[in-house]
Specification:
It is built from 15 helices and 8 strands. With 311 residues, it is of the alpha+beta class. It has 3 domains: 81 residues, TATA-Binding Protein; 89 residues, no CATH class; 117 residues, Hypothetical protein, domain 2 (Endonuclease III, domain 1), CATH 1.10.340.30. It has a 6-stranded antiparallel beta sheet with strand order 1-2-6-5-4-3. The chain has a two-stranded antiparallel ribbon with strand order 7-8. Helix 5 runs antiparallel to helix 9. The chain is globular, with a radius of gyration of 20 Å. The structure holds a DNA duplex (14 and 13 nucleotides).
DNA sequence: ACATCCCCTTAGCC
DNA sequence: AGGCTAAGGGGAT
C-alpha cells in the first residue's frame, strides 16, 4: 500500500488487490454502516465530525475530507485495511456456503466505526429495516448534529453523547425513533455521565465487555454483538438476526438437534438462550474471525431471491 | 383497495 | 425459567 498526493485535492491510496483485497462498494453496501451515500461516482459519509468523500477504481482508492483533512492512516484504520483479509478468508472458508459468499463478495471488509455512533445506531436498528435505520440516524444528526456543506450537499455530524443526554424523549421521538426514544436517551445519559467508557471496552475481553454493554437500555445480545464487531475489534462476535436465523435453518441445521431447529423455525424471535446457542455455534464453527463469516453470509443471503422465507 | 406481515429485537409482565 | 406481547411506522405481500 502506498500513499500518494494527487493533482487535485484528493489523496490516493494504492492497493495491491492480491495482498490487500478491498471492495469499497460491497463494504459500504452490506448494511454494517448507515452513514454513507453515493452521489455520482463518489461515496460520501460522515465520520468523526468530517465529511469524507471516497471512490475506488480498481487498485486505486481516492479520498478527501472536509472541513478538516484526514490522512491516509485514518482511512486505512476506518476500513480496516490493516486486517489480513486473505488470511481471514482462508480461515473462515470452511464449507461450500461460506465459500460461495466469499466468491461473490471477496474484498468486503468490516468497518471500524466509532463505538458511540455504532451503539446508538444499533439500538435504533431494533426491529427496523436498513433504509428506515438510515433515516433515523440522519434525522438524529439533522436535529442534534452540526451541518457541514460540501460539494453543494448538506451533511450532518453525528450528535455527541451530551447532545442526546441533554435532550428529552419527545425531541428524540421526532426523529421517528418510535419506542426506541427512551432507550436512546437513557443510554446516552449513562454514557455521557461516563458510567461506561466505551473505548475502554476495546481492550476488555469479549465476555466481560459483553456484560457491560448488556447493562445498557436497548442493548440485548444482538446489539451488543454488532457494536463489538463493527466498532470494538471483537472479530469473533457473531450477531444473530432474522437473516442469520434463516441461514442457520437453510444451511447449518444439521449442527443442531432437530428439536431445537423445529423450535426456532416456528417462532419469529429467539429467546436469549437460543440466541446464545446459535452465536456460540458460529464462534466455535468459524473460529476467531466468526464475525467476518457472519457478515459475508448475511450479505450473500440478502442478495438471494426472497422466497422460502420460512424454510 | 385493503389487511396483514415484516423489519439486522428488547423489555416487561406473568 | 421461559413464554407471551407490545412497541413507530413505512414498505412489501
Amino acid at each position: 500500500m502506498r500513499f500518494v498526493k494527487s493533482l487535485d485535492a484528493s489523496l490516493k491510496i494504492q492497493l495491491n488487490q492480491l495482498i490487500t483485497p478491498f471492495d469499497l462498494e460491497q463494504t459500504l453496501r452490506c448494511g454494517q454502516s448507515f452513514r454513507w451515500r453515493k452521489l455520482s461516482d463518489w461515496w460520501y459519509g460522515v465520520v468523526n465530525e468530517k465529511v469524507v468523500k471516497i471512490r475506488q477504481i480498481e487498485d486505486e482508492l481516492r479520498f478527501q475530507s472536509f472541513p478538516e483533512k484526514m490522512n491516509a492512516n485514518f482511512v486505512k484504520n476506518y476500513f480496516r485495511l490493516d486486517d489480513n483479509l486473505p488470511h481471514i478468508l482462508s480461515q473462515i472458508s470452511i464449507d461450500e456456503h461460506i465459500r460461495k459468499a466469499i466468491q461473490c463478495f471477496s474484498g468486503l471488509r468490516i468497518i471500524r466505526q466509532q463505538p458511540w455512533e455504532c451503539l446508538i445506531s444499533y439500538i435504533c436498528a431494533t426491529y427496523k429495516n436498513i433504509p428506515a435505520i438510515k433515516e433515523m440516524i440522519l434525522n438524529l444528526s439533522k436535529r442534534f448534529g452540526t451541518k457541514i456543506t460540501f460539494n453543494g450537499h448538506d451533511f450532518y455530524t453525528f450528535p455527541k453523547p451530551s447532545d442526546l443526554a441533554n435532550s428529552d424523549c419527545e425531541e428524540i421521538r421526532k426523529c421517528k425513533l418510535g419506542f426506541r426514544d427512551k432507550r436512546v436517551l437513557k443510554t446516552a445519559r449513562i454514557i455521557h455521565k461516563e458510567k461506561l467508557d466505551l473505548e475502554a471496552l476495546r481492550k476488555t475481553d469479549y465476555e466481560h465487555a459483553r456484560n457491560e454493554l448488556l447493562s445498557l437500555p436497548g442493548v440485548g445480545q444482538k446489539v451488543a454483538d454488532c457494536v463489538f464487531l463493527f466498532s470494538l475489534d471483537k472479530l469473533k462476535a457473531f450477531p444473530v438476526d432474522v437473516w442469520m436465523k434463516r441461514i442457520i435453518l437453510k444451511n447449518y441445521s444439521s449442527y443442531f438437534e432437530p428439536l431445537f431447529i423445529e423450535k426456532i423455525r416456528n417462532k419469529r424471535s429467539l429467546t436469549p438462550h437460543e440466541y446464545r446457542k446459535i452465536s456460540l455455534f458460529g464462534q466455535r464453527y468459524f473460529g476467531r474471525y466468526a464475525g467476518y463469516a457472519q457478515e459475508y453470509l448475511f450479505h450473500y443471503e440478502r442478495h438471494q431471491p426472497r422466497q422460502d422465507l420460512r424454510l
